[in-house]
Amino acid sequence: MEEQSELKNRLVKHVIYNIIGFTIIFVIFGIFIFLMVKMTTYKNANLALIESKNQILQLNEEKINLILSPSLFNGYVRKDWIQSTIDQYKEEVLVKKVVNPNIIVIIRDTKNEILNNDDLGKLSNYINEIPFYQKHLDKIYDVTLDGKYSYKALNLFYDRKDDQDNRYIQLLINVDSEKSLVSNYFSIISVSVFLGIILSTIASYVLSQKTLKPLKDNMIRQMEFVQNVSHELRTPLTIIQAKQELLLQEPNKKIIDKSEDIMLTLNETKRLSKLIKDLMLLSRADSNKILLQKESVNIDEFIKNLVLPYSEIAEFEEKKIILNLNYNMDIELDTSKIYQLIIILLDNAIKYTLQGDTIEIKTELKDNKCIIEVADTGIGVSDEGLKRIFERFYRENKDRNRETGGSGLGLSIASFIVSAHNGTIKASHNNPKGTIFTIKLPR
Predict the structure, then answer these.
(1) 283: confidence class by pLDDT, cuts 50, 70, 90
(2) CA-based nearest residue to 59, from 84, 81, 91, 82
(3) Is the pLDDT of residue 411 over 50?
(4) Pair type for strands 358-366 and 320-325
(5) For the chain, what is the mean pLDDT?
(6) What does the alpha-carbon distance between residue 322 and residue 63 come to, in Å, rounded to a whole number?
(7) What 3-state class would DSSP assign to 408?
(8) Please, what's the largest Cα pairwise distance for the chain?
(9) Which residues on neighbouring strands pair with residue 144, listed in sequence order?
(10) Model pLDDT, residue 400
(11) Integer Cα distance of 342 and 339 in angstroms
(12) Is the torsion defined by CA of 90, 93, 99, 105 positive or negative?
């Protein structure tokens, strides 16, 4: 229960962290896109203001004086020159020709009073709402009229050198359509970010489930491993303790009288020693600390010599071992590990076959690989057993394995040995009965 609670807490934390991470990414991404869209949308309006500003600044002093001066006849000048200048550069014509037609030009004095009110048309109704700050020069800023009309504004200062009052020029351009577009973009991006967060929440949960599944499976396997190891160790230790206590109760007895108890104690000690050795091997396998010492060997001759003593054991139990060796080539192997592998498979085959059954060991070259098969006609394995047969401590029939002295680690070790040689091992049914173990090793 504690392990399940811990996994659940990890899942919740994992999902929360993922949601926070995805939310930050989506929000930052959304803000970046919105700012880029906003900057791009207002770009043309800002450029129009800047271009108009530059055009006005390029006018020579006489032209600007004509535009900004309240009196065109101030000072001594030729009348014909004045008349031609008035015709060419009078305020309304100059503004139409030099300034963008979308730009509204407002001329102010040093007291912020508007001097060209008659030229502003409908905008003159909002004169008092048009903000202007003398220190706010050469910077584009936003202006809102009547709470619904939006403008971009740019202020210029003209220092007159003819002892006349200085003037300010305020340029305005309507950006209602741009503002509406930006607002729509903001709504779209906000909805997209919101949907992204919802989808990321779902994705985070699904991905967290998949990410933690191996951890969950590993935790379950560890629990089973600890339980199985405890069970395997408890039985021989209990027997050894019980027999030793009996020996202590009768200290005057001769060894020959207690030989059976001593033999049982020794057998359980050997079994305990083998179990510990197997566990250490699997532990090193998990940490990838085992290095293979390969050498070239004729696999057929190797198996033939290995099986010889087991043939006598099989004959004694009225079972038959058949060799069908057809590979007949050298292959690079760690002979000690392959020896252990074949012994594990052969030992299992002898244990789980009955009188009159046969065990066949076959080798061949197939698909450019060395194939080794150990097939028996014994009691066989169920379909579920075939799926789990290489799991540690797995027993299809625990009582049967206890009788035969198995710990459920042999086939796990066999699988590791094959994997260490970059090969594969598979168990299948041997029709009409029995089991086949097929090993494929690279040449």
Answers:
(1) low
(2) 91
(3) yes
(4) parallel
(5) 78
(6) 116
(7) coil
(8) 151
(9) 150
(10) 46
(11) 5
(12) positive
CA nearest neighbour of 436 among 350, 371, 376: 376
| DSSP secondary structure, 282-307, as one string | HHHHHTT------EEEEHHHHHHHHH
Q: Cβ(400)–Cβ(378) under 8 Å?
A: no
Distance of CA 136 to the CA centre of its chain: 51
Lowest model confidence (mean pLDDT) among 59-68, 87-96, 236-245, 298-307 = 87-96
What CA–CA distance (Å, rounded) separates 175 from 154?
13
Q: Do 339 and 308 touch, CB atoms closer than 8 A?
A: no
Q: State the pTM of this model.
A: 0.49
Helices first, then strands: H and E counts in the chain: 12, 11
Give the torsion through C-alpha atoms of 336, 338, 339, 342, to 10 deg: 160
Q: Which amino acid, residue 10?
A: R
Q: Which helix (H) or strand (E) holds 439?
A: strand 435-442
Q: Is 125 helix (H, G, I), strand (E, B) or coil?
A: helix
Residue 204, both tokens: 């985070």
Three-class HEC string of 51-109: HHHHHHHCCCHHHHHHHHCCCCCCCCCCHHHHHHHHHHHCHHHHHHHHCCCCEEEEEEC
Q: What does the alpha-carbon distance between residue 378 and residue 255 come to, in Å, rounded to a whole number? A: 40
For residue 406, give both structure tokens.
Answer: 């198995």
